[in-house]
TrEMBL record:
Phylogenetic placement of the source organism: Eukaryota, Fungi, Dikarya, Basidiomycota, Agaricomycotina
InterPro entries: CBD, CBD_sf, ConA-like_dom_sf, GH11/12, GH11_dom, Glyco_hydro_11
Gene Ontology process terms (BP): xylan catabolic process
Pathway: Glycan degradation; xylan degradation
Catalytically driven reaction(s): Endohydrolysis of (1->4)-beta-D-xylosidic linkages in xylans
Enzyme Commission number(s): 3.2.1.8
Keywords, ordered alphabetically: Carbohydrate metabolism, Glycosidase, Hydrolase, Polysaccharide degradation, Signal, Xylan degradation
Residues the record marks as active site: 103, 197
Domain CBM1: 222-258
Name the record gives this protein: Endo-1,4-beta-xylanase
Ranges for domain GH11: 19-210
One Gene Ontology CC term in the entry: extracellular region
Principal EC category: hydrolase
Signal peptide: 1-19
Amino acid sequence: MIALPLLFALLARFTFTAAVPANESGLIFGYFFAFSADDGDAATFTNEDDGEYAIQWGENSGHFIGGAGWTPGSPQSISYSTFSPVGNSWFSIYGWTTDPLVEYRILEENFGGVDPTVGLTSKGSLTSDGSVYDIYEAQIVDGVSPVGTSNFTQYWSIRQSPVNAGIPTVTTQNHFTAWAAAGMPLGTFGYQIVATEQVGGASTATNAGSLSVLVRTRPAGFCAIEYAQCGGEGFTGPNCCVSNTTCVQNNQFFSQCLAD
Ligand SMILES: *[C@@H]1O[C@H](CO)[C@@H](O)[C@H](O)[C@H]1NC(C)=O
Ligand SMILES: *[C@@H]1O[C@H](CO)[C@@H](O)[C@H](O)[C@H]1NC(C)=O
Ligand SMILES: *[C@@H]1O[C@H](CO)[C@@H](O)[C@H](O)[C@H]1NC(C)=O
C-alpha cells in the first residue's frame, strides 16, 4: 500500500514536457537550461519535471549540447541520474567562467567511447567522489563561446570509472581546487549545467541516440532564483530565495521568489 502523498509524487513525475528550440536558454522550475545544436531538426531537447530533461538525436546529427543547471554556477555538489543511454554522447558537469574565459567539463560518462582526450594536454589527476579523474587542458582558437567567437581555455576532469548507476555526486569544489593547483584557475562563474552532448562533428558518422537526465538534488544552501518556487505543500526544493528576492506565498501549494 503506497501512501497517498508518495503516490501523487510518483504520478506527478513525467507529466510536464516542453520542447526547447535549438540555441535557446532560459529558466524553468528554478533551473537554468541551455540547448545549442548545429541542426535544429536533428536533435530534440525537452524540459520535463523539476530538474529533468531528455535529449533525443538522429544519426549524423552534428554537434549539440544541452542540459539543466544554474546561472551562475558555483562550487556546489551536484547529483544526477541518467536513464537509458543510447548512442554515443558525453555526459558532464559543464560550464563557463569569464576572466579568464574558460569552458570546463567534469566528464562523468562517455557513452559510446569517442575519445575525448585527442588534442588535450595532461595536467595530472585527482581523486573525488570515489573515483580518480584525469585532468586535461586545451587551448581553443576562435571557438564558439558565450561571449562570441573567442580564444579560450578548456579544462577537463575525466572520470576513470563511471558510476553508471544510482545517484552519483560530483563535488565540483574538489575539481576546481585541483585545477587551480595545476595552474588552471577559474574566473567568474557563468552558467553551469548537467550536460549531454553529441561528440561526433557533422563530418563524423554518429549513432542515433537518447538520454534522460534528472538533476537530482540541490545542494544544501542553494536558494531559488527570482520567480522560482520556494515553497508549497509537497514541494521538496529550496525554501530560501537568492539575494534581493523574498519567498512570497501565493497559495497553499505555491510560494515564489519575488524581487524585494
Ligand atoms: C546554433 O548556433 C551555432 C553557433 O553559433 C550555429 O553554428 C548553429 O547553426 C545554430 N543552430 C541553429 C539551428 O540555428
Ligand atoms: C585568437 O588567436 C589568434 C592567434 O593565436 C588570433 O589570430 C585571433 O585573432 C584570436 N581570436 C580572437 C577572437 O581574438
Ligand atoms: C542586492 O541589492 C543591493 C542594493 O541594491 C546591491 O548592491 C546588490 O548588488 C544586490 N545583490 C544582488 C545579488 O543582486
